[in-house]
Amino acid sequence: MTDKFKRPELPNVGIVAEMEDADRALLGNYGEFLPAQPGQIIIEAGEEQEYLYFVISGLLHVTILVDGRNKLVSRVESGETLGEVNVFDPGKASATVTAQEFTQIWKANREDIDQFVKAYPEAGASLLTGIVSVMCRRIRNMNEKLADSESMEILGKFW
């Protein structure tokens, strides 16, 4: 048995799926790896938020407060990210994110990402493409939900 702690690695999924193994390993040096225990709050609604979070393993719940009760908005699992908007446009978090089980996270701010992109432009371009792809998918999903809710509202007027 060894006493050495093995540093987590960024898995070949999500925003880093198109990156080479060596580039993902280098990217890990530009942020920090964090363990989160069950019940630990990662992001607090209403607090300043400027980080991109990549879930290496575990499960996070994203909740918002509605009528005094926490409402589950999303489950975030291995390979998924949070904070894509806030890393480029810092602001207050719109939701609270809590670990549901032991979770390993990689966290980086804008300066970390900028330094990586400058040091490794090709790998950085791949990372930025991955981030933009996730953001586009989320915008598309929100647009579909909005369109569905508006359709239901219109239908409700006729029934």
UniProtKB/TrEMBL annotation:
Domain Cyclic nucleotide-binding: 33-117
Domain of life: Bacteria
Segments forming a coiled coil: none
InterPro entries in the cross-refs: cNMP-bd_dom (IPR000595), cNMP-bd_dom_sf (IPR018490), Env_Response_Regulators (IPR050397), RmlC-like_jellyroll (IPR014710)
This protein's name: Crp/Fnr family transcriptional regulator
Organism for this UniProt entry: Luteolibacter algae
